[in-house]
Amino acid sequence: MSDAPLNNENTESNSLTKAQLAELLYERLGLSKRESKDVVDAFFERISHTLIGGQDVKISGFGNFQIRTKASRPGRNPRTGEVIPIDARRVVTFHASNKLKEQVQPAS
């Protein structure tokens, strides 16, 4: 696969969508549009199920997705100043690999 940036001319924002990833598979690998969509959906579904199961996801050269449990804590209603308890919860964190960080960082 080419290291060339992805073309985002058809988007209103600077984000990459699942549809664009599927289109990229269709164009570069010759998969059918249906197969491309299925591959992208299966990829993200697998990541989601792995994280829901409490396991980390490590993608070499890209980064790590991890589940972190945040403890309950007191919060504050900004309008009234009233203290409100915030329940404990699980959150997903992402840590970019050094390789990705180097690619994102402009050359100095």
Automatic annotation (TrEMBL):
Transcription as a keyword of this entry, yes or no, is: yes
What SMART domains has UniProt attached to this entry?
BHL (SM00411)
As given in the record, the signal peptide range reads none
Which CDD domains does the UniProt entry name for this protein?
Answer: IHF_A
Q: Give UniProt keywords alphabetically.
A: DNA recombination, DNA-binding, Transcription, Transcription regulation, Translation regulation
Please provide, alphabetically and separated by semicolons, the GO molecular function terms listed in this UniProt record. Answer: DNA binding; structural constituent of chromatin
| Assembly | Heterodimer of an alpha and a beta chain.
* Family designation: Belongs to the bacterial histone-like protein family.
- What is the recorded name of this protein? Integration host factor subunit alpha
What organism does this protein naturally occur in?
A: Lampropedia hyalina DSM 16112
